[in-house]
Amino acid sequence: MGVDERRGAVLRAIVEEHIQTAAPVSSQAVARASGLSVSSATVRNDMTALERDGYVSQPHTSAGRVPTDRGYRYFVDRFADPSAIEGLGINHQRAVSEFFRGTHNALEELLHETSGLLARITQHAAVVVGPPAESARVRRVDLVPLQQGQVLAIAVLSNGAVERELLDVDPDLSIESILAAERALASLLNDSTLHSPPMPSPTGDAATDALVNAAHVALHRRAEHADPLYVGGASRIAQEQDAFATTRTAATLLELLEQQVVVVSLVRDLLESGVTVSIGAEHSIDELRDCSLVLAPYRIEGEVAGTVGVLGPTRMDYQHALAAVATVSQQLGSLLSK
Amino acid sequence: MGVDERRGAVLRAIVEEHIQTAAPVSSQAVARASGLSVSSATVRNDMTALERDGYVSQPHTSAGRVPTDRGYRYFVDRFADPSAIEGLGINHQRAVSEFFRGTHNALEELLHETSGLLARITQHAAVVVGPPAESARVRRVDLVPLQQGQVLAIAVLSNGAVERELLDVDPDLSIESILAAERALASLLNDSTLHSPPMPSPTGDAATDALVNAAHVALHRRAEHADPLYVGGASRIAQEQDAFATTRTAATLLELLEQQVVVVSLVRDLLESGVTVSIGAEHSIDELRDCSLVLAPYRIEGEVAGTVGVLGPTRMDYQHALAAVATVSQQLGSLLSK
DNA sequence: TACTAGCAGTCGAGTCTACCGACTGCTAAT
DNA sequence: ATTAGCAGTCGGTAGACTCGACTGCTAGTA
């Protein structure tokens, strides 16, 4: 076995051991656990080399080594097999299957529950990004008068999502005008996507036209900037006492998840560049310095529709997380494709 | 000033000081801050009496006093004026007004954003319980076929809420049957509440009847057990380092909020018995032993429709929290009443 | 050249001690 | 009834010390 190969094995042992124990890993522990039959002294030599190259670091002089972001990266690229669904364990596999075999409600709830499932099996916070409303076709449009001067515009999309916007209208607007607007909207939008920009489409009646336009604009706007984020198991972040040492960071993390927007765009950016594992400082958001993100897109009828992901400390079980997101995304996709 | 009166003042000073400093309060501090002109020795005597009666306690022998749940209770009952909206401060008042003057979307979003507002001004986690769907009238019912064998049932309620359930149906069901079912449902439900139990209503066609019934049952079930909880500022819980000493409790708290159901029923129970402030162990849920809950119902057209509340450590600023929930609930109610 | 054994050195973490200071409780005086 | 003053209690902090888990290095071996 060449020396480079052995160093890889040493790094692997360090990562695996550290993931298990959460403590710096000593040369002895590696010599014992790696399966290599070399002495701890040899491991020590390799460790200094690994440290020189930036794969591991020492918290302080007389301590074992801890993987750096770069070390984790090497480990993931080299040793983690994303297709290894067997990394899940039979119990979790069964849990996933059962979950998706059960009955579910409209899209939003399914996605929310999926994030809970993923959190449960990975023991980390989980995120699910829904399919963008853009790609779904409009199945129905309603304009429902709620009270004087208020109309609720509702669009039902082919994927089961329901977009709605409250509109303020002229209180004296007649029911007939609303109905006319509804008809006009229906013929305008049905079977098209909400993504396409609103176009004027005169019906002859000014009040009706105004309402049609307002509803169209509102629904379009919503479809534009809302692919919602579902977060499950956020409380796990608070449990990760050791990883997010200061309570401070845990709190800011939770806040970040509450705000949603940052996370959504991060996930989208990562996935667009084909990244499925983002480790520590690799992503640019400062609050996520100590976190890793393991992602998998799910496909509806072949098209990438959204993303499921796990958010945990950099010291996380990547094998397991990868297997979990792979399984869940696959099953979610096939359920949604039906 | 009688001795009982003075003891009340001492207790008040202890509570107020403790809320500010988070530390046990010494007799000197009380003598200095209470406005009473007595010596610390006198205060000490009163303190032993207060301790004997269970209003305060000593963390250890040579420490100051800390209010007990009972002490907070007395303080709230006696000194906190729930109608004291001026306890909010002009800035917060303005923030609330501006929030409600801005435009908002459908009910669910408004409530969610309201929880965020309340969290922001109180610096604690906030909850909003939505109006029960039961009381709202049905404005529209849709049955939208999504794909072979799937129909989405949608009910739009007069309060702007939209309830939906996904139904599995016979894949060969004709469009006409679905339309017929939709018409039947509309005449069955329009202007009534979802609360009333489903009744058979034969139309003559078996398949249609089955669908009508399935939709009705599903929507009714949903209206029954779903008055949803909106949680804002959950991350504040993690920030309360001192109050929820162990990370453990913070995590379980967050989990509780995620599960929703426990909190919803607690809030409902409390409000039914007219309680607006529940302190520490007063509520029976063990995980909330160190928390207080400050609630205010909001009314839509005179009827109690839901609740807004603040969830914080027992050591919280009750004055401010009371003022906040009072203002927010009042404004939320009047917005929803329109 | 590649590896190993063994030793010296480093440093964190835990324990012990002593001490300071912040309180209280009590007593005696007003 | 109130107060002043004093003695006693106890948590928290700082310093000294030890222990043990490491590493790095050097010299020796295959």
Description:
The structure is a homodimer of 338-residue chains. With 338 residues, the first copy, chain A, is an alpha+beta fold. Chain A has twelve helices and ten strands. Chain A has three domains: 3-79, Arc Repressor Mutant, subunit A, CATH 1.10.10.10; 85-131 and 228-337, GAF domain (Beta-Lactamase, 2-Layer Sandwich); 134-225, Enolase-like, domain 1 (2-Layer Sandwich). A five-stranded antiparallel sheet of chain A has the order 7-3-10-9-8, sandwiched between helices. A three-stranded antiparallel sheet of chain A has the order 4-5-6. The two termini of chain A are 50 Å apart. At the A-B interface, strand 4, strand 5, strand 6, helix 9 and helix 10 of A face strand 4, strand 5, strand 6, helix 9 and helix 10 of B. The first copy, chain A, binds a DNA duplex (30 and 30 nucleotides) through residues 3, 24, 26-28, 38-42, 44-45, 47-48, 58-64.
